[in-house]
Amino acid sequence: MTMSRTPRSRHPQTVTAEPVRRLLVVGLVLGAALVTTACGDEPGSFTEGQARHPDVAGVVDTATPTAITIDGTRYPLAEELSSFSTYTLEPIPLRQRVGQYVHAGLDGDGRVVWVAAVGAVLPGTPPVVLYSGRMRSVEDGTATFEDGTVLPLGPDVTPPGTLPAFVHVRIDADRDHIRSLNHP
Predict the structure, then answer these.
(1) Rounded CA gap, 149 and 163, in Å?
(2) Domain containing 137 — which CATH number?
(3) Is 173 among the domain residues?
(4) pTM recorded for the entire structure
(5) What pLDDT, on a 0 to 100 scale, did the predictor assign at position 50?
(6) Mean pLDDT computed over every residue of the chain
(7) What's the CA gap between 163 and 136, in Å, rounded?
């Protein structure tokens, strides 16, 4: 018994434009989603210079793999936690923040999704934190810095007349506002 073969075409199959368009649209949508995620739209993810308005500010009392205590209040940690330097956005271990002044962001369930290390607390009455940066803007008594740090101004603090300006500030760690400001 002999088997007959179906002859193969020497010409490749013609692909219609519709499936190609669909693939391009799907690729563009997925690409846009990846770019959006990488640019800081996820909780705890920031782009350089993006303002970070904290939900919590204060001194870290304790840090465990599941919770952080800031100024005596315990907050559970989200599974996807970002802990970073406020100056550089470089990741830093949360356990190294104990005793330091931080800003933290919470999700809708009250879990900490990001912690920005602002600085070490200097002893005194009140305890202060030294911070230096380029003040970008002031709105409604709140200063935003070029690194994304956001700090309220204290009652007697006047920002520089021209912004942006490099400043040295003393943060009142008890009241979570700028206590004094030097503009070199």
Answers:
(1) 15
(2) 2.40.50
(3) yes
(4) 0.74
(5) 85
(6) 82
(7) 6
**Which structure tokens are listed for 120?**
């070490």
Q: Token digits for 125?
A: 């009455």
Which structural domain, as residue segments, surrounds residue 38? Answer: 18-47
Report how many domains make up the chain: 3
**Containing H/E element for 20?**
helix 17-36
Residues 113, 67: one domain? yes
pLDDT in tens, 104-159: 999 999 999 999 999 999 999 999 999 999 999 999 999 999 999 999 999 999 99
E strand or H helix that includes residue 76:
strand 73-85
**Residue 9 and residue 24: Cα distance in Å, rounded?**
28
Same domain, 60 and 105: yes
Cα–Cα distance for residue pair 8/147, rounded to 1 Å: 64
Q: How many residues belong to the chain?
A: 184
